Amino acid sequence: MRLIETYSDVKKAILKVIKSLGYELRRVPARPLPKPNPALPPADSPMVAGLKRSRQRGLVPRTIIDVGAAEGRWTQEARTIWSESEYVLFEPLEERAPVLDAMAAQYANTHVVKAGAGREKAVIDFFVTDDLDGSGVADNGTNARRRRIDITTVDEEIARLGLKGPYLLKLDTHGYEVPIFEGATRVLRETELIVVECYGFQIAPQSLLFWEMCQYLDGKGFRLVDLVDVYGRPADHAFWQCDAFFMPKKHPLFAKNTYH
Q: Could you name the CATH architecture of 58-255?
């Protein structure tokens, strides 16, 4: 009780001094959080920002190849930047077909290949996860369902469709990248940008770690130019994956070695 009285006395004394100086102490109501401005465009995703930087470097591909297209979200993002390009979407999962078929019906410049891509035509095992997004050629221990899928090559499908370069080649293929690149030797000669999901751990047999992918693509004539969507493992924050952008080593921007 004595403590409360002491505190009350001190408070009254402070208020008296403030009042004697000509000031008044009042509680300020909390300010509401600012509302989003509908007139402002939404912020770009890291991927879209990276693709826009590629456009600013002068990239205007005639054909954009999306291997591991899933439900076509990446293609839709790319279309906001290169609306006039031809799009080829490789996707082996039959569950994705309705969405991709609808996209092809809406856009005349969209072509769907209902198969995976690889080194040569074949039929291989594919492991399908419940969420579909984690599906791939490797059994990652998530009780995925084994399924047989058709494999074709990027070179064969691009030739069949009669589509010309320069090309943009995007891979989201969960560790199956090397066979796809080996089946795209003709396309790679006219490719001006590769966007590939890379990993910090070996997620499939013979898959490449990020630094190994840089080394492998260096041998193909490409050099790292940009990174987006860098993620670490939740438990220990160790580097897990990123989307890496590679351009031909002969591109003029690599001739400059200074920071500014």
A: 3-Layer(aba) Sandwich (3.40)
What is the rounded average pLDDT of the residues 50-66?
A: 98
Q: For the chain, give the number of residues.
A: 260
Comparing CA positions, the residue from 162, 156, 155, 167 lying closest to residue 63 is: 167
Does residue 4 carry a pLDDT above 50? no
Please, which residues have CB within 8 angstroms of residue 161's CB and are 6 or more apart in sequence?
A: 86, 88, 111
- Cβ(256)–Cβ(78) under 8 Å? no
Sheet strands side by side (includes 122-128): 116-117, 145-152, 122-128
Rounded Cα distance, 151 and 131, in Å: 22
Strand partners, 199: 209, 241
Which residues are bridge partners to 242 per DSSP?
Answer: 198
For the full predicted model, state whether its pTM sits above 0.90: no
